Amino acid sequence: MGAVVSLGEAGGPAGETVGQVLYGRIRTDIIFGRLAPGERLRLDAFSQRYGASVSTMREMLSRLVSEGLIVAEGQRGFQVASVSPEEFRELAELRLLIEQHAQEKSIKSGDLDWEASVVAAYHKLSVTETKMLAGEDVDPELWKRCDREFHQALIEACGSRAIMATHTSVYDRYLRYQMIAVVFRGEVAAREHAELLDCALKRDWERGATVLRSHINNCVDYALADPSPSWANPPSTRGRTSEAARSKSSRRNPSGRA
Predict the structure, then answer these.
(1) Domains of the chain and any CATH numbers
(2) Which of 43, 57, 89, 138 is the most buried (most CB within 10 A)?
(3) Whole-number Å distance between alpha carbons of 134 and 119
């Protein structure tokens, strides 16, 4: 597996090459749904959109093929990978397998600095979710970045860069589904996050594994409560249903309910 970049801002951190910044921008746009599932990527137009040469763009898209975010169509070019309820469940199972193992190792071996990073990440997530539960307008990307940072903080003391890199790749593909399906379970998820923090600080890795399992499985069940979710529609119809899906999510849970 190639190197996986973190979700960064459009400009990228200092020291990154033009190619790294471009790769990060496209990857983030796919994960956060700005590039829709099934969208065809015509190299000429796409290169102009991101301000890159056709050859550089082809190289970046080929890298993303290996991550499962882009599909190569031979002579026809590339398209954003499609989505399905089946793949969502598969990614959730894979995320749980990796994250449970890493979280156990991290809780067992994390030091005081690790505890501090977990508390700091939880604080950002808790403040964001409290605002959402109060009905305040919160950028979904900000919320999911905070969610991602908290779960990564919980496992960062696992002692394995390979596990962290694999988890990042799987988690981001899972996150893509959360963004597309507009999944926010509100008080239930907020309580689960608080329980995970408590497990970390009390070094209770066994209860942490149970909470994490419920947290992930309940999220998937919530997103797939509709047997034919609108976000899984073909690209030709998805544009007409995306707003309806957001409206349905708001009606289903006005106070919020990841």
Answers:
(1) 18-80 (1.10.10.10), 85-252 (1.20.120.530)
(2) 57
(3) 22
